[in-house]
Structures are given as C-alpha cells and as structure tokens.
C-alpha cells in the first residue's frame, strides 16, 4: 500500500523527501554509488520545493531507503547523519503524519479556519470534519490526549511515571513472541519538570531488514508529530535514552513476522536529554601544515565500531586529514561491516515443529516466519551464501568500501 501512496503522493505534488532544500542537514547522499540515470532523484530542489513549513521527516513514505538505486544493490546511497535513523528511512507501509499534513496544508489549509476544536500533542483538526482531530502516530483519543488504540493485541496504555522503574513489553514477550500485523503504543508522562528515561533490557529480537518492517519506535524529541528512531534486528541498544520533554511515546509495530520482540524499563528522571548514542570520536595529533604541494593526505585513522553485529546492515567509518593547503579527494570513508549472517530466530524450532504437524500446510499465522527459518537472516538486498551476507549480483567481495 505504501508504494501506491508514494506514487499518489507524486501525483499530488510531493517530491522525494531527500530532494528538499534542507535534506543535507539530515542525510548524506553518496553520489558515487547511485545509478547515473537516477541521480536527479537525489538532487536538492532549492527553487522548486515549498516545504510549507513542515519539518523534514526521515519516516516519510516519500523518503528513499539506504540502498535506493545502488549500483550494486548493497552500497548505501543515503546515509542518515543521525545513525539511529538509518533503518527508519525508506518505509513503505503508509503515509506518515507529516506526509498527510503536507497534503492538507497544500489543499485544505483554510477548511477549519473558523472552528475551535482543540487538539493536543501536535494533532490538528481534520479538514473534512473539523470536530475531529488527526493525531500523530502513536496517539489517539478525541483530542490526541491518549495512546493510539492497539491492533490485534492487548497492549499499550498511558503510564504516569515516578522515579521508580516500570517495565513494558511487546505482546507475548518473550515466548511465544509477537505475531504479524500487531501494533501497540504507550504514552509516557514524567513528573512535572522531569523527563522520561527509557532503557532496553533482557532479550531483543525482530525481523531483520535494512528498513525496519517489524520494529520498536521511540518518539523522544520535543516534536511528537515526527517519526522517531526505529529499532529492529538483534542488536539491543546498550545505552538508555532520555526524552527532551516530560512526554514520550513508544510504538511497537509488526507487519510480516513473529519474533521475541522487546522489553524496556521506564522512569521519570532529572537527567539531561539523551536522544542519540554518542558517536565514536577519533582524535589525532596534527603535524603543522608546511607543504605547499597540494593533495598531501595523512594516513587514515582507525575504523569506528560497526553499527550492527551481523546481517550486512552495518556501517563503519574512518577519517584522514589534509596536510597541505589544499586537498582533493575524500576525507571520510565508510565501509560495510559484519557481513556474517545473523543467527536463526530462537522460535524457529517451535515454528517448524508446528508446521510439520500441519503436513507442510499453512495452519498458523506464522507462514512468513517459517520461510525465514531455513537459513540465517541477512538484511535485503543481501542473501545468505554459506553463512555470509552477499549481494545476489556480486558474491565475490567480503567487504565494500564507501566514501564521501
């Protein structure tokens, strides 16, 4: 459905999100790895796009994913400046809240001008029925004052937090785990003058894809309307997060598979906002610039830690410095890393056993998950080749270097 909505978005006048004039503040475009005939889809349209005051949205259905139109289907063509958004870009489930807001601002901005319906938490009056509110993802109720109603599960709610930890988890965590096509949201409210702290604990596992399809999303910025960080695969975030305000939203969504899911503990805190994992900082001692000859580069620095432990989704980087007055070339280099296939889902033995009882026929809702149990998982477009994640067009390279 999201692909159809993407194309309808174009018909209504929406450009690709990465073409917005402010895009380079949020993403880096790797032109060297884009198929030449598609370069124009990545160019910024400073004089052609009117953003209508709507903020940039890395969760827009109009945003390209990490490897969109890549020359080899695995080199990343779009790299998010905030690494926690790398698996958020490229979603094709549905129009985001800001996608809809952009269309409404363009075509229906004066429809509710004389109405007085008050919507909370960033919601606004529905142009076709001004007595109703359109709510950001994860919010619901008549005025967007509570969490969104759950889908196919008993979960979610409003949590009034204290300084004592409380826990919440995805449906049926950890065993038998969540099922396909479920959704839950939690509206977290800290004490007045405090913030929300969130920490992932215990087991963590989701269907692993380069753009998260099954995920847990944290909306912890001061703008609850925008898409938050989406986490999937097997790498549990190791640090806690602190919201910018006294309100945060956690969203769980499963579209395709079944897996363990997540568990977090939450509390009210006085800590400073902590919304992004601090990057690895490489420091070097620079020799004085004494060379007039151009293009004198220092040696490359150490590689940063890989952003993923398996599956082919990971990125690492290193930098070098120019030791002459002018240098041509790239000062930062990115590389894919940890191409070992991820381990098989812990639930596979049970799923396969149930499937055998059905004589190979689909008698459960887990048919998609069962098909993924035959081999370790790799992030698309990678495929598992003898335990390693490789592109189906190029199975000869163990590692690929990317540069900017």
From TrEMBL:
Cofactor annotation remark: Binds 1 zinc ion per subunit.
This protein's record includes keyword RNA-binding: no
Record bears the keyword Ribosomal protein: no
Single GO molecular function: metalloendopeptidase activity
SMART domains, A to Z: CUB (SM00042), TSP1 (SM00209)
Name of the featured protein: Zinc metalloproteinase
This protein's GO CC annotations: extracellular region
Residues of the CUB domain: 155-269
Peptidase M12A domain span: 1-109
Cofactor(s) listed: Zn(2+)
Superkingdom of the source species: Eukaryota
